[in-house]
Structures are given as C-alpha cells and as structure tokens.
Design goal:
Number of strands of chain B: 2
Oligomer: heterotrimer
Low-confidence stretches of chain B: none
Largest sheet of chain C: 2 strands, antiparallel
Distance between the termini of chain B: 24 Å
Radius of gyration of chain C: 21 Å
Order of helices and strands of chain C: HHEEHHHHHHHHHHHHHHHHHH
Strand order of the largest sheet of chain B: 1-2
Number of strands of chain C: 2
Number of helices of chain C: 20
Distance between the termini of chain C: 26 Å
Mean pLDDT of chain B: 86
Mean pLDDT of chain C: 86
Chains: A mainly alpha, B mainly alpha, C mainly alpha
Order of helices and strands of chain B: HHEEHHHHHHHHHHHHHHHHHH
Radius of gyration of chain B: 21 Å
Strand content of chain B: under 5%
Shape of chain C: globular
Chain lengths: 98, 489, 498
C-alpha cells in the first residue's frame, strides 16, 4: 500500500468516526466537532486517493485549501448560531432532542 | 476572453452588491439593493441575448482553463435558471423593500440585504458552473447564506430551524465532497463534460454517484430527508421563505440533474432512477398529506414545497432507459414544473406573508373574513394554488400534462397515478386555506393592511406562474439549447 | 379575415375582461359595476349572434395557438359550439340582471360578479373549444370559478356543500385528465373531427379506446350529474338563487352534457362509438338517471331541492339523445340542451322570487302564492308544463324527437322510459302548481318583502318573464328559423350528415 493510499484509508476511518459521532451525539458542540473530523477525513481521501500511483497532483491540494476555508466558515457560522441558541433557549441540543 | 463578456458579471454584480450592502450604513441598504436590481436585469438580458445570437457560451475565468481554472458554461438550462433567479429575486426584493419602508429596521434584519445578494451570487455560480468542485463551493456558499437568512429573525424557533438546516446542509455537502474526491481519483478531471468518458462505469463511479446523490437529496429535502425544511421555510421572513422554496432547494436538484445527464447510463442505472422516483412519489403523497394537516399557514406552504419537490424527482425514472420522446417530454415537463413551481411558490409565500401580516396571527383558522379585507393577497394565494394543484390554465398544469405524456409514452403508468393523486392532495390543502378565508364568522374588521407593493409583488409572481402555462413554448425551446434533448439547437 | 381568426377568442375574452374589471372595482361602486357587467354581457351576446349568422354562411372562425409542441389551443365556432355559446350568453345576460336585483344590499358583490363572469368565460370557452385539450382547460377553469359562488354565503352549510362540490368535480376532473392524456398519447392532438383520428387506429387498441371512453364519460358525468355521480348537485343548492340557476341551467351541468355530446360525436364519432358498442350502455345509464332523478324529486319537500333532482333527471335527456344512433335522436338531445336551459332557469328564477319575496322555501308553504305573485307563478307554470312535456311547449318537442329517434335506433324500451318519466314529472310538478293556484293562503308569509310591488322587484321579475316567454316560444315557434329546433337540425346537417 502506498503512503497516499494509506492516508486515504485513514481519511475513510476518520470520516466513519465523524459520521458516527454526528449521528450519535445530541449535544450540538459535539456534533460540530464530529462534522469537523468528517471534513478532515474527506480532505485526506481527496488528496490521498488522487495521488495514489500518480504522484503529486496540485489540483486536489488546491481543492482542499478551498475546502478548509469553507469548513472554517461553516464552523464559525455554526458556532454563532449555537451561542445564540444557547442564550435564547438555555439548551445545547435541538428542541426535538431535549 | 475580454471583460466585455457579460457572463462573469452575473456573479460579480451580486457579489459586489453584497459587499457594498454590507459596508454602507443600514438605512442605505434597501436603496442600494433597489439600485443594483436594474444592473442585474441588464446583465441577465445581455447574457440571454448572447445565447440567442451565438448559442452556448463557455467562459474560462481569468483565462485559466480547466482543470485548474474555473469554467463557466452558459447553455439554455443554465441561463433559464439565471433568468428565473433574476425575476423571482426582483419581486422578492420589492416585497422586502416595501416591508422595510413600512416597518423600519430592527437588529439583525439589517443583514437581510447583504445576505440576499450573496444568495443570488451563490445561485448564479451554481447555475453557471461546469465543474463539480466549483459546484461544491457554490453549494456551500448557498447553504451558509440560506442558513443565515433563516436565522435572521433571531427568535428561538428561527435559530433552532437554522441550526437544523445547517447540520443537514453540512452533512449533505460532505457527502457530495466525498463523491467529488472519488470521481477525481477515478478520472483526474472535475469538468462535468468529462465525467461521462473519464469516470467510466466502474464501482468507484457508482459509489461516488451514490454519495453525491445522497448529499444532494438531503439538501433538496427529498422525502424522507425533508424534516429540516418545513421549520426553516415556514419560520423565515416571507421573501426569504419565497427564495428558499423557489430557488435554493432547486439548486441542489439542478446539480443532480446535471450529474445524471453527464454520467454513463451504466452508472446512473434504471434501478437507481426508479428509487429516486419512488422517493419523489413518497414526497408527493407525504408532503401533501402533511400540508393538509398543518394549522399554521406558512407551514402549510412549506410542506407543499416538500410535496412539489417530489414531482421533480419523477424526472429520473422518466429519462433513464426510456425512449427519446418520453425523455424529451420529461425534460420539458420537469423544467416547466421547476419554473412554474418557483414562480407560484414564491408568489404563494409572499401572499401568505401578507395574509399573516394582515391577520396578525400565523394560524389558518384566523383567516376567517379576510376575503373581504385583503382580497388581492388571497387572490394571489389562490392563483398560485391553481398552479400548484396543476389545474389549467397554469404552468403547473402544462408541466403535469407533459409529465403525464412522458409517463404514458414510456408505459410507466404508476407515475401517472402519483401525478393525479398528488394534484388532488394539493387541491385539498389549497382549498383548506380558501375555505377558511370564505367563512363569514363573527365580524372582524381590524385587519392590518400591508403596503400595496407587497400585494402586487405576490400577485405578479402568481400571475407569472399562471402565464408560463400558456406561454410555455418559448422558455422550453430556449432551455433545450445545448441540452441532450435539444431539437436542432 | 383577420377578425375572423380572433373572434372566438374575443368572445371568451369579453367576460374574462369583465371579470378582471369587476375584481378591480371597489366593493361600493355598484352602479358602475352593473353597467360594466351588463354591457359586457350585451357585447358578448351580440358577438355570438354575429358568429352564429356567419356560421350559417359557412364562415370559418378559428383561433389557433401552439401551446407546446404537439398541443394546440384552439377556439373555433362550429354550429354545435355556437349553440351552447348562444345559450350561455343569452342566459348570462338575464342572470346578470336577475343577480343585480337579487344581491341588492348583499355583501361581497364584487367577488360574486367577478367569479360569475369568470364562470361564463369558461362556459363559452367550453362551447368554442376546438380540441379536447382546450375543452379540458376550460372545463377545469369552470370548476375553479364556480367554487367561490357555491360557498358565497360563507355559512357552515355552504362551505360543506363547497367541499362536496370540489370533491366530486376535482375527482371527475382528474379522471377526465387521465382519459384525455391517454387519448393524446394514442392519437396526438385530439381535434373535434367526428372521430377521424380514432377510426384509423389498430383494432387491437379498441379495448383501450373503450376504457378511455369510460374514463371520459366518468369525468364528464360528474358535472352532467349522471347516476352514481350526481351527489353534489342537490347539496350545491345552498348557493344564492342566481348561482343555482346558472349552475343548473347552463354552466356546470350543461358543460358535462355538452362534453358528452362532443366525446360521442366529435372525438369518437357516432358510428365508431356505435361499432364499439358504447352507445347502448350510455343510453341505459341515461335512462336510469332520468327515472332515478324523477323518483328522488318526488320525495323532496324543499322547492330548490326538488328542482335540483329534476335537473338530474332532465340533463340525462341530452345524454340519452346523444346515445341514440340516428339523426332524429340527435336532434332531440341537442334541442334539449337549449330547452332544458331555458325552462330550468325559469324555474330557478321563480324559486328565487318566492324565496326573496315571500321567504318561502318549502313546497307546502307555497299555498296561495299565485294570488300574491301572479306573474312569477305563470312563469313557473310555463316552466313546469314544459318539463312535463305538455304540447306545444318546448319539452314536448324534445320528447317527441327522442321518441322517434329511439324507434329509429331500434331501442323501443326508451319510449317506455320517456312515458314513465313524463308521468313522474307530472307527479312532482302538478302538486306544486295545485298549491300555488288552487289552495288558499294558509298563514302569513314567512318573510315578506317588496310590499310595494304587485309581484316582486322588477329586476327579479323581468328576467323570469323573459326566459319563460322564450321557453314558450321555443316550443310554439319550433318550426321557425333560429328556433332551438332549427339550430339543432343545422348542427346535425352541417356536422354529422355530410
């Protein structure tokens, strides 16, 4: 197994873990963290899988950079809404999960 | 590749509008918004003129072509969606502006305008993108903006709805991104046009398509993944709900359609298409039933969106492995359904917003007597309802007729049943609203009166939803340009 | 020539624009609205007469527009269409006059007259539709535009009636859509052309055509109130009198009956329909409806409900005439389209007059009404005698032609149905007439108005007398040019006996 493929498999595992956490947890902060783990996993798949056997490829690197920016923005927005929600309702879960 | 090419301006103008709107003081945002609208129209018309004169346009941003650069593709479908966006957005903007003039601003509502402009930029970038990664960026920008718009009112209900929406949107995008990763690994290209040849028919392509489809139907709120939609669309401000239901959910569907048409039929199999159709049928029935059971007006309209999305998914079984005639009819029918639903639903949400404003209550039961005081808004609601029910002479009817023909031509009569029963269900919920408004109960005469422009915006959208049924030929001919179903360009 | 291609559209558009104008007028502009309404009705009538004369001279009036590839929107004036359009525009004029009087001081008049005009626009659209698709377009528009009229009063009872009405008509519309779409898949755009497109189909498809025929008749039968599908009609009686008059005499039930005529003659073609063996079951269904409606009418104590069941019965005469294979039976069915319209609208106007002037709704309250309201009662008597088929009134002409047509078609049992139905008609109308004319007034009228008038308000009385006179003339002057009978014969000659 090439190192690139190894990274991709680690990405798959991370994605699975993240998805598991995303579905299992009710606390919004934990779900957000789980989502970030999933995101990192998918970035590793993106870079790892594309470079497997083909050598270094700048395209997935550029994509992942963009992806990271998007993920940061999403996380920031989620945190803002989470804080507001906590302030308004005093809850850290969604109404249907309380 | 000169600057004179209008294509990038479809994205640049609203992005600039968003930035400028964010920077200027709040009291100028409405005026700024209204000032940028005519520019949007100019660019839209210029691009449409280009399509008419030169056919399909391809533009590589900054002269960088694929795979590193970003390519914009303007075929009939893309520009049809652009024109629809400009039209619906303009009327929603008029509605929002006259509401603001009435109420003044308070708190976060001030962010409405920058977000609205970001929404348009995101939508246009999705319509025009020709590669799957750029579509991902568009989807994310759209999702984040839409979530911001839902959260705008700041109430607990809105925040919960926004949070739920955000989680769904993030999960959906990640699924989509994983699919992109697999497709790129398999083929080394991101361009939509290369997918069919490069991705081949291997297992990788299938897994990728499955992941992307899953992510996209989650964002489109296809039954049974629709739970996030009603609170988000039902709880937002009226023009926001209108834009979300009319355009935003369509964006992910649009990507899905592009993907399915680009991929090899061995990857996008008939079984998978039938599964999507079955989910669509479930959406039509469940959404219609839930809409009928709602007690809040805007939630009823939101569930109606869940139902109407279902019709659009009948596209997949009707084009996969069927004859050219059936496929062409399904293409026309689906696009017309998409357009007329966008117009009618936007009109209906604006009208519902006006009615809620007039009643001072979100409940359908409080509509009693409103037919005398706000006949125009009620009339718009009814007009939009006719299109949703698929009764003639409306866009919804002509679309349904085309889908019926397509289903009969391909011998898939079970979709005919779905179309007919779905129409009856939507009649049930639309007439539920009308029935309540005709009740001559205890005399009530303290309805609020929203400004005339708000009522006219709703009426214009609802009337456009009707008119597109009678004038369907030319938009459909336009949207066939550059499509697999194009008849002579 | 250019005008001729636009005229059918203009005729439909007159009431469409009237509707639009009325919606835009403010509620309290009563005089302006009435003037607008009446002039639109008069213009429409004038245009229809103009086209009628042209049609006799073989002038072609046709508006055609491609809606989407393979589907056209066609409005065309053929003799049959003009016949129905003429009936609708004549009765629209009178009903408008009546409604202006009837709704004096009532709320929501703007909404009422707006949808009323929309309803007439759809009826004329149905009449002039040149293919099945356009017919369906206006057929569904009619459902939509009559709903607000049925629930107009906004009471719990009328809302319930509206719900039942919608359940029936939208359900029927869905079945009709299925039939229309299926037929479209087989033969493409279904223009009304005496079954030209269907005859040439592969005989293997004939069972499919039978299924389609059944679907079309089911869809149309809801509005025509054919036997198991008639349930909405008596409940819709809660609507204001002009609406009942229009629903029952012209717009809704006739749209269904007219549609059946179109399907049998112009979609399938009478000969082809006969070859497929579709006509005999249709005749049986119509006969059953005729007898069932009459029997139920006997049991009603409410005047309007009795008239409603009478409508159920009488509309099926049209269907029966259609189902008789032969020109004479056709004439009988077609002429009843006009006759029944004139007679039934007279009867409903009278019922409205009794209700508005005396507050009388039940039949046993009518004792002595003839003395208080002689003119209305004469009109009612004319209508009732016409329905029974007393010579030389309009109903007699119908029954005569239907009888001869039945004999020609070899369906002798139909004559028995006609006789039995006439007996039943007499049984439910004569006691009413007896009460009106020969019983003394028993008690003070429940809710008397218009004390100053000898009979009732002139806006209510004049249309009543006019339609009564026309139904009398239709029978007495049946042999004259431009009588309903004359026109029915023109239709049969021009369209069906090449």
């Amino acid at each position: 197994m090439s190192s690139a493929l190894f990274y991709a498999w680690v990405g798959v595992v991370l994605c699975g873990l993240g998805l598991f956490g995303f579905i299992l947890h009710r606390h919004l902060m934990r779900r957000l963290l789980a989502f970030n783990i999933m995101g990192s996993g998918s970035f590793m798949i993106l870079v790892g899988l594309a470079q497997d056997g083909r050598g270094a490829d700048p395209v997935p690197q550029a994509l992942v950079l963009t992806g990271i920016v998007v993920a940061v923005a999403s996380t920031a927005l989620a945190l803002v809404i989470l804080r507001r929600w906590y302030r308004v309702s005093g809850e850290s879960r969604l109404p249907e999960d309380v | 590749m000169s600057v004179a090419l209008p294509l990038p301006w479809l994205i640049v103008v609203p992005l600039g509008g968003a930035m400028a709107s964010f920077l200027v003081p709040e009291r100028w945002r409405v005026r700024l918004g209204l000032a940028v609208l005519p520019v949007m129209w100019l660019v839209t018309l210029a691009v449409l003129g280009d399509l008419a004169a030169h056919g399909v346009q391809v533009h590589a941003l900054g002269g960088w072509s694929a795979p590193l650069g970003i390519t914009l593709l303007a075929d009939g479908l893309a520009l049809g969606m652009v024109a629809l966006t400009t039209l619906v957005f303009s009327l929603c903007a008029v509605h929002a502006a006259s509401h603001a003039a009435e109420k003044g601003h308070n708190g976060e509502i001030g962010f409405l305008w920058p977000l609205l402009w970001f929404l348009v930029a995101a939508l246009n970038s999705i319509w025009l993108s020709a590669d799957i990664f750029n579509l991902y960026v568009g989807l994310e920008l759209l999702g984040l903006t839409a979530v911001g718009l839902v959260a705008l009112t700041g109430s607990a209900e809105a925040l919960a709805a926004a949070m739920r929406y955000l989680l769904a949107a993030l999960l959906g995008s990640l699924c989509y991104l994983l699919g992109v990763a697999l497709l790129y690994a398999a083929g080394g290209s991101l361009a939509l046009g290369d997918l069919g040849t490069i991705a081949g028919s291997g297992a990788t392509a299938r897994v990728a398509l499955a992941l992307m489809t899953l992510g996209l139907i989650l964002k489109t709120a296809l039954f049974p993944l629709h739970a996030w939609l009603p609170p988000a669309h039902g709880g937002a401000l009226a023009p926001v709900s209108a834009l979300l239901s009319a355009l935003v959910v369509k964006a992910s569907l649009y990507i899905l359609i592009r993907l399915w048409l680009a991929l090899d039929p061995d990857v996008a199999t008939a079984a998978a298409a039938n599964l999507l159709g079955a989910l669509g049928a479930g959406a039509v029935l469940w959404g219609g039933w839930m809409a009928w059971r709602q007690t809040k007006l805007k939630y009823l309209v939101a569930y109606s969106t869940v139902a109407q999305i279902g019709y659009l998914f009948l596209f997949f079984p009707l084009v996969t492995g069927t004859s050219t005639i059936a496929g062409g009819l399904a293409w026309d029918g689906t696009l017309l359904m998409l357009i007329s639903h966008a117009l009618a639903k936007a009109g209906m949400f604006l009208a519902a917003g006006n009615l809620v404003l007039a009643m001072g209550s979100p409940l359908i039961a409080d509509l009693s007597g409103i037919s005398r005081f706000r006949p125009l808004s009620l009339f718009s609601f009814g007009l939009a309802g006719v299109s949703l029910m698929g009764l003639p002479p409306s866009g919804g009817f002509t679309a349904k007729w085309l889908l019926l023909q397509s289903a009969l031509h391909s011998g898939q009569w079970w979709w005919v049943v779905v179309l007919i029963v779905g129409g009856l269900l939507s009649a049930a919920y639309v007439f539920k609203v009308l029935r309540h408004s005709f009740v001559e109960g205890p005399k009530r005469d303290h309805f609020n009166s929203p400004p005339m422009a708000m009522e006219l915006a709703a009426l214009a959208l609802a009337a456009a939803g009707m008119g597109v049924g009678l004038a369907a030929q030319s938009p459909l001919t336009w949207m066939r340009i550059g499509s697999p179903f194009g008849v002579g360009g | 020539m250019a005008l001729n291609t636009w005229l059918p559209l203009i005729v439909v558009a007159t009431s469409l624009f009237a509707a639009l104008g009325i919606f835009l007028l403010r509620e309290e502009r009563h005089t302006l609205r009435s003037a607008f309404n009446l002039s639109a009705a008069a213009i429409k009538l004038g245009l229809v007469i103009w086209m009628a004369i042209g049609v006799l001279d073989q002038v072609r009036y046709e508006t055609r527009y491609t809606l989407i590839d393979g589907v056209s929107f066609i409005l065309r004036a053929d003799p049959l269409g003009i016949m129905f359009a003429g009936l609708s525009s004549v009765l629209w004029l009178f009903t408008t006059i009546y409604a202006i009087g009837y709704l004096e001081n009532a709320p929501n008049r703007s909404r009422f007259f707006g949808f009323f005009s929309l309803c007439v626009a759809s009826t004329v659209g149905i009449a002039l539709a040149g293919n099945l698709f356009t017919f369906f377009l206006f057929y569904e528009l009619l459902t939509l535009s009559t709903y607000p009229l049925v629930v107009h009063r906004g009471t719990a009872k009328s809302l319930r009636a509206g719900k039942i009405y919608l359940a029936y008509t939208l359900g029927g519309g869905a079945v009709l859509l299925l039939g229309v779409a299926a037929l479209h898949t087989l033969v493409g755009d279904v223009e009304f052309s005496a079954g030209a497109g269907l005859r040439v189909l592969d005989p293997a498809l004939h069972p499919m055509l039978v299924v389609i025929f059944v679907m079309l008749i089911m869809g149309l039968g809801v509005k025509a109130a054919l036997l198991p599908l008639h349930g909405w009609l008596p409940t819709a009686m809660v609507a204001p009198a002009p609406v009942s008059a229009l629903l029952h005499a012209v717009a809704v039930v006739k749209a269904g009956a007219f549609g059946i005529v179109r399907v049998v003659y112009d979609v399938f073609g009478i000969e082809f329909a006969w070859q497929l063996g579709l006509l005999a079951p249709l005749a049986v269904l119509a006969s059953a409806t005729i007898l069932y409606g009459s029997l139920r009418a006997l049991a009603q104590t409410d005047l309007k409900r009795r008239l409603a069941y009478s409508t159920v019965s009488q509309v099926s005469y049209i269907v029966l005439g259609t189902a008789l294979f032969g020109p004479v039976g056709t004439v009988g069915g077609l002429v009843h389209l006009l006759h029944q319209g004139l007679m039934k609208i007279t009867l409903f106007f009278c019922a409205g007059n009794y209700a508005e002037t005396l507050g009388v709704h039940r039949i046993d309250e009518l004792d002595g009404a003839g003395r208080r309201m002689p003119a209305t009662s004469v009109a009612f008597t004319l209508g009732a005698f016409g329905m029974i088929g007393v010579p030389p009134l309009a109903g007699f002409v119908t029954k005569w032609y239907l009888g001869i047509g039945a004999l020609q078609a070899g369906m002798e049992w139909v004559v028995a149905v006609l006789v039995l139905s006439s007996v039943l008609n007499a049984a439910y109308f004569l006691p009413v007439l007896h009460r009106i004319w020969f019983r003394p007034q028993r008690a003070p009228w429940p809710d008397e108005h218009f004390h100053a008038h000898r009979d009732t308000h002139p806006w209510l009385l004049l249309p009543t007398l006019a339609t009564a006179a026309m139904s009398l003339a239709a029978g007495v002057l049946a042999g004259m040019p431009f009588s309903p009978l004359y026109w029915a014969e023109v239709v049969v000659h021009q369209s069906y006996l090449p």
